Amino acid sequence: MEFLTVKGIGKKNERGFELKNISFTQARQHNIAIAGETGSGKTTLLKIIAGLVQPGSGDVFFEGEKVIGPDYKLIPGHKGIVYLSQLFELPHFLRVEQVLEYANEWTEEKARRLFELCRITHLFKRRTDELSGGERQRIAIARLLIMDPKLFLLDEPFSNMDPANKDLLKNIIQDISIELKISFIMISHDPVDSLSWADEMIIMKDGEIVEKNTPFEIYNNTASEYTAGLFGKYNIIEGKIVRPEKVALRAGTKGVVKNVRFYGHYWEMDIAVGKDLVVSRGNVEYKVGDRVNF
Q: Could you give the CA distance from residue 7 to residue 48 in angstroms, rounded to a whole number?
């Protein structure tokens, strides 16, 4: 029995957009990241999996049980699945300990460990309107985890976060997955955020799944310019997609260095040779105006 089975899901909205025959499976403690351009259907799919939106066709099965949509269930959702929207809300003007107390059915010891995992124990006496965006999000995650889910759906959890809070949240998600044995499906506004985290990537375009593979294969060996573009810059060399860091350079006469940019842990160069070539390096061997071969 698969942990999660999504089978033939279709959904058409009033604007004419349509999810088309979405099918995939997820194993227990196997984390999936869903990537695609804005409007490709990612959020609608996540809400259907959570039981919050009724599919037009197809079924979702969680641990062998059909997930019933809101058209046939008074209180939408599934007890084993939680969904955190990028537009989540917390009760206003309550202290954090009050927000969590109202939702907490765990033992004190178990709850304390959960709050430690979420890095929120120091926030208990603060009011929700006194929290930063990253702190509020960690409270919202803890509040859902108290419901003891087995599958956690995250919709763009890293949007509008500074690098420090983003790294902290990534570590929290990883710790929760390992220690609490919770599986995740995540949509990320910046798909690069999920490359180091996911076991499998699902790429969506215009309501369809166009590619499924490991993060390594998706980044390095995709044949699709659409997929390649989701994960950063790329070149087309002799008909093949080549990442900037994979281009080997030597002195020569094929192209001219047009621009050199510094990004902290690497440098990037634009090389004029027909259509511009983008090359990245840990250090810079060339300067603007140099002629190079590749």
A: 12
pLDDT in tens, 37-80: 988 999 999 999 999 999 999 999 999 999 999 999 888 889 99
Q: In this structure, what are the phi and psi dihedrals at residue 119, rounded to the nearest 5 degrees?
A: 55, 50
Q: Rounded to whole angstroms, what are the CA distances from 200 to 24, 34, 102, 131? A: 11, 9, 36, 33
What is the rounded CA–CA span in Å between residue 79 and residue 67?
10
User: Are 184 and 28 contacting, i.e. CB atoms less than 8 angstroms apart?
Assistant: no
- Report how far apart, in Å, the C-alpha atoms of 62 and of each of 32, 50, 78 are: 15, 10, 9
In this prediction, residue 181 carries a pLDDT of 93
In angstroms, rounded to a whole number, what is the distance separating the alpha carbons of residues 48 and 52?
6
User: What distance in Å separates the CA atoms of residue 204 and residue 182, rounded to the nearest whole number?
Assistant: 24
How far lies 142's CA from each of 117, 119, 253, in Å? 9, 10, 59
All residue ranges of the chain with pLDDT < 50 are: none
What does residue 274 show for φ and ψ, rounded to 5 degrees? 70, -115
> What residues contact residue 275 under an 8 Å CB cut-off, 6+ apart?
236
Cβ contacts of 271 within 8 Å, gap of 6 or more: 255, 256, 257, 258, 277, 278, 279, 292, 294
Q: Where is 116: in which H helix or E strand?
A: helix 108-117
